[in-house]
């Protein structure tokens, strides 16, 4: 086992992207960047791709329900299917199997044993 932080991305689910952007840009004095329309209504937080920081996005959801569990943390993977193959035997569920996100690679959405949604991200 490597002693490396595997977290590389987060999604914060929101009901209204424009209002959420205004909130985060005002509170943190930053500028978010809108993603291409094919990814849905999303705006990304600034980051340095060569730096050690992680980043994420605000993601507008049509079926949004306010709760304290509207953030998805993504863990880096060599290949999402590796962890997908272990989820059910560990007591979790696969919510969305490995899917392409274009030039950014692939993601899977899983549910842990407490019902929390977590994500996986891989380049292949």
TrEMBL record:
It comes from the Bacteria. Residues 6-123 form the VOC domain. Pfam families: Glyoxalase (PF00903). CDD domains: SgaA_N_like. PANTHER family: GLYOXALASE-RELATED (PTHR33993), VOC DOMAIN-CONTAINING PROTEIN (PTHR33993:SF2). This is VOC family protein. It comes from Algibacter amylolyticus. The lineage of its organism: Bacteria, Pseudomonadati, Bacteroidota, Flavobacteriia, Flavobacteriales.
């Amino acid at each position: 086992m490597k002693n490396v932080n595997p977290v590389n991305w987060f999604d914060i689910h929101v009901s209204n992207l424009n209002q959420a952007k205004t909130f985060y840009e005002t509170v943190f004095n930053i500028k978010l960047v809108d993603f291409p329309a094919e990814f849905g209504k999303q705006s990304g937080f600034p980051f340095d791709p060569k730096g050690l920081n992680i980043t994420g996005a605000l993601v507008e959801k049509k079926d949004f329900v306010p709760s304290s569990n509207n953030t998805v943390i993504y863990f880096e993977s060599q290949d999402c299917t590796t962890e997908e193959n272990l989820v059910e035997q560990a007591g979790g569920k696969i919510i969305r199997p490995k899917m392409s996100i274009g030039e950014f690679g692939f993601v899977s959405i899983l549910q842990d044993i407490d019902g929390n949604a977590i994500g996986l991200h891989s380049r292949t």
